[in-house]
Design a protein that fits this description.
single chain, alpha+beta, Alpha-Beta Plaits, four-stranded antiparallel sheet, 4 helices, 30% helix, 32% strand, elongated
C-alpha cells in the first residue's frame, strides 16, 4: 500500500502539487444505490418526467461541478462532461455518474460526489413515505487516463 497523498511525513494535511504533471484525458465512473421498499420504488417509477429522478440527476451534475468547494483538498477541475443516470429497480435506485476532464489529476472525486448527492436527493424526495431507506454501495467502478 502506498502513502497517503494528502498527508506529509510530519502528519500535516496538504493539497497535492500536480503542477509538474502533463495534461491527460481522464474519466471516472462511480455508482451508488438507494435501497427502499418496493412500494417506494414503484411510486418513483410512476412519476411523470421532470420528477424526483430528474431533480436528482441535476443535483448530481451540479455537485460534480462543485466538488473542490465541498472536499477541501480537491483541485478545481475543468470538467468536459458529467453524466448522471438513475435506474429504478424493484427495491431501489441505482445511480451511475461519469465525469471527464483533460487535466493533471483525476476526476474520481467528482464522480463519487455526483452519485452521493444524487442519492441523497432521491432520499430527500422519498423520505416522507419511506423511513427505512438507505444509501449504500457508493463506489468507484472505473478510472481511466489517456495521454494527451
Amino acid at each position: 500500500m502506498g502513502e497517503l497523498s494528502h498527508v506529509t511525513e510530519a502528519g500535516d494535511v496538504r493539497m497535492v502539487d500536480v503542477g509538474g504533471k502533463p495534461l491527460s484525458r481522464r474519466r471516472a465512473v462511480a455508482r451508488a444505490t438507494v435501497r427502499m421498499a418496493e412500494e417506494t420504488a414503484r411510486r418513483l417509477r410512476e412519476l411523470p418526467k421532470g420528477d424526483a429522478l430528474a431533480t436528482a440527476q441535476v443535483a448530481g451534475i451540479m455537485a460534480a461541478k462543485r466538488t473542490s468547494e465541498l472536499i477541501p483538498l480537491c483541485h478545481p477541475l475543468p470538467l468536459s462532461h458529467v453524466e448522471v443516470s438513475l435506474e429504478v429497480g424493484v427495491g431501489g435506485v441505482e445511480i451511475t455518474a461519469v465525469a471527464e476532464t483533460t487535466a493533471q489529476t483525476g476526476v474520481e472525486m467528482e464522480a463519487l460526489t455526483a452519485v452521493s448527492v444524487a442519492a441523497l436527493t432521491v432520499y430527500d424526495m422519498a423520505k416522507a413515505i419511506d423511513k427505512a431507506m438507505s444509501v449504500t454501495d457508493v463506489r468507484l467502478v472505473e478510472k481511466t487516463k489517456e495521454p494527451e
